[in-house]
Design a protein that fits this description.
about 160 residues, mainly alpha, 6 helices, about 65% helix, elongated, disordered N terminus, disordered C terminus
Length: about 160
């Protein structure tokens, strides 16, 4: 066996009937709250949509249209969520707003690329599964919780304080 054959064998899933996921999408808990009811509500919905998409990806009978529709729902809400989150962070003078926007831009680009692939029927279920799980697992815990002090108050509430 040459090196190329070895690498090809090593890259094949050990159980091809089940897609490989890095880790499951987290379940909502109060420890994930950023202290803003609207943002928390959107986070909860995004996590639920992510789990719905994972169930479809884990089902051999799910159609590409079903998967594409579920991914479109995630992308649509993620765009609305990012816009709201950025406006709240900006209004509350978050010192890391530029970095936060950069993370959102990168995630949006990745989601848009996944959506474009899905709409062209070049969907790689294991890749999609891994990317969505990683994104959902990191969005709240690594991007939002560190700046939650700048998300708790809406701009009007802070101005009146």
């Amino acid at each position: 066996m040459n090196t190329q054959q070895f690498l090809m064998n090593a890259m094949q899933p050990k159980n091809p009937s089940k897609p490989h996921r890095v880790k499951p999408i987290p379940k909502w808990s109060p420890s994930l709250s950023v202290g803003n009811a609207k943002l928390d509500e959107q986070h909860i919905t995004l996590l639920e949509l992510g789990r719905d998409l994972m169930r479809l990806l884990d089902t051999d009978t799910a159609t590409e249209d079903q998967i594409n529709s579920a991914l479109e729902d995630i992308v649509r809400l993620a765009r609305l969520h990012d816009t709201l989150e950025e406006s709240i962070l900006e209004a509350n003078d978050c010192p890391t707003l530029a970095e936060h926007k950069g993370v959102h831009r990168a995630a949006r680009t990745q989601l848009d690329n996944l959506l474009a692939d899905a709409s062209r029927s070049i969907l790689d279920r294991p890749v999609l599964s891994g990317l969505i799980a990683d994104w959902m697992g990191h969005h709240i815990s690594e991007n939002d919780l560190p700046v939650k002090d700048y998300m708790k108050q809406t701009p009007t509430a802070r101005a009146g304080a």
